[in-house]
Structures are given as C-alpha cells and as structure tokens.
C-alpha cells in the first residue's frame, strides 16, 4: 500500500481519553475534521495484477491528497478513517470491479467502530478491507490484541473479505495462523529489494493466506523478482493508476464527530471500570 499507511501509532489513540467536554468538542473537533477532509481531492485506483497472465484482479482505492500525504494520514483519528472509508465505498459502489480499501489497526481494535461498520450495510462480494498497518500490532497490549482479533473475525463472519497489507519481516512474528486468516497477504514494497529471504517469507505467509501480493513493482527487474519469489500478484507503478476527482462532503465530518463523541464516553467508562478492578 502506497499512501494509506501513515496513521498514528494505534496505542496513542486506543488508550487515550480527551479532556474536551461534550459542549466544546463540537466547536473544536468539527473544524478539525472539516479541515482534514478538505484535503481529499479525489480517489486513486491502483491495479493489482496476476503475475502469470497480467490480468487485473482488483484495484486498491486510495484517497488523493492535495497536501502532504504523510502529514495528512498521521493526523487522522480512527473515527475519521472509518467515515472516509464509508464515503469511499459509496463513491465506487456502482463499479463492477473488485476494490480493496484500507483501515488501520486502530479501527479494527475498537469494538464500537466495528459495530458501526457492520451496521452501515451488508458486505459486498467485490469489496475487501485491507488491515493496513500491521507494524502497529506490536504496540498492542493483550486486551487490545484480543479486540483486534475479534474485530477481524466479526467482519469476516459478516461476509467481509479482510486482507493483510504491508507485511514485513519485522511485523510477521506478531501474526500467526491460529489468530488470523486473510483473503490475501500483501508484502510491503520495502521487502522487494535487498531481502534474500523473501521467497522463504512468502512461503511462510501462505499459512495466513493462499494469495500473496508483492507491492512496489516498478520495473521489469522487479517483476522478475516477484515471479522468482513465487508471489501470485503484484502492485506498483509498473501498471498505471487512474484518478477520479471528487470531494468529501461535510456529512462525513459530522458522522466522524458523532462517533468521536461516543468514543470519548465509551473510553471514559472503560477507565472508570478499570479503576474499580
């Protein structure tokens, strides 16, 4: 995944509670959310291609950002991630092709947001969700890890295809087949070059999924490496992306604000309960 993996460390937000009151969060947070969504100028569609025949099997859908992508994604809270995700779904709902979208560990680890996602509508066969930042799994405490695993399984039970994005040799030890199964596993672009163990790691990753995608393919040499390592599919600038201009409506920010307010209340309740244990 190229852009949508720049979110904050998951534990910074999961265990925090805001000092804002219910009265002033409306004034402060809505403006912040509106400022964030105003930076989205469209959607990018990056093809994911079977290596054996060149067939496009899906497109990863990313937000096109008018400003600094790293700064933008690092500033997003999980409720805004989810609100933008649902907006993206609406924008592509009419398309017949398969589309893969991104959500961070922080969303998968929050039971309330998983419930909101399930309540938003039924899963679609041509839509998959990428767990985009597995490097953040190492920052979870046991309770948060259980919530992550539960979130993935709840969505799968409701028909969602879940894909593991950006797998690296660093985060691989935190994942095993006893905890997770995925519709596909995508190796991070940094693994393509200079990793002598890539073929072996791809083989091991098949315990998580039978479909392996290698990201970062930009040249014929990259494509050769991907085939040599026995990946099933590839993604990268070797295959041109397309862009659709569109803008996020204000209702997305207001939806995120509502979820944020509810999350503040839920997390304060959790802190109160833990304080009495």
TrEMBL record:
<feature type="domain" description="EAL">
    <location>
        <begin position="26"/>
        <end position="243"/>
    </location>
</feature>
<dbReference type="Pfam" id="PF00563">
    <property type="entry name" value="EAL"/>
</dbReference>
<protein>
    <submittedName>
        <fullName>EAL domain-containing protein</fullName>
    </submittedName>
</protein>
<dbReference type="InterPro" id="IPR001633">
    <property type="entry name" value="EAL_dom"/>
</dbReference>
<dbReference type="InterPro" id="IPR035919">
    <property type="entry name" value="EAL_sf"/>
</dbReference>
């Amino acid at each position: 995944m190229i852009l949508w993996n720049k979110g904050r460390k998951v534990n910074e937000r999961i265990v925090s509670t805001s000092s804002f009151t219910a009265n002033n969060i409306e004034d402060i947070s809505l403006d912040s959310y509106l400022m964030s969504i105003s930076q989205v100028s469209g959607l990018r569609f990056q093809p994911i291609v079977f290596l054996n025949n060149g067939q496009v099997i899906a497109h990863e859908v990313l937000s096109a950002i008018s400003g600094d992508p790293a700064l933008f994604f690092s500033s997003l809270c999980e409720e805004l991630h989810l609100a933008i995700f649902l907006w993206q779904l609406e924008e592509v709902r009419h398309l017949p092709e398969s589309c893969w979208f991104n959500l961070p560990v922080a969303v998968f680890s929050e039971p309330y947001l998983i419930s909101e996602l399930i309540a938003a509508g039924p899963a679609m066969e041509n839509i998959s969700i990428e767990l985009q930042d597995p490097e953040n799994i190492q920052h979870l405490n046991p309770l948060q890890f259980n919530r992550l695993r539960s979130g993935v399984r709840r969505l799968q039970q409701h028909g969602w295809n879940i894909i593991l994005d950006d797998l690296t040799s660093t985060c691989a030890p935190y994942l095993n087949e006893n905890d997770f199964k995925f519709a596909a596993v995508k190796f991070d672009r940094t693994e393509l070059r200079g990793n002598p163990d890539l073929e072996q790691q791809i083989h091991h990753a098949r315990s998580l999924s039978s479909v392996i995608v290698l990201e970062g393919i930009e040249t014929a040499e990259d494509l050769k490496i991907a085939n040599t390592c026995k990946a099933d599919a590839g993604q990268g600038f070797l295959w041109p992306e397309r862009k659709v201009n569109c803008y996020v409506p204000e209702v997305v920010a207001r939806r995120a604000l509502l979820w944020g307010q509810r999350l503040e209340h839920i997390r304060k309740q959790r802190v109160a309960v833990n304080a009495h244990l």
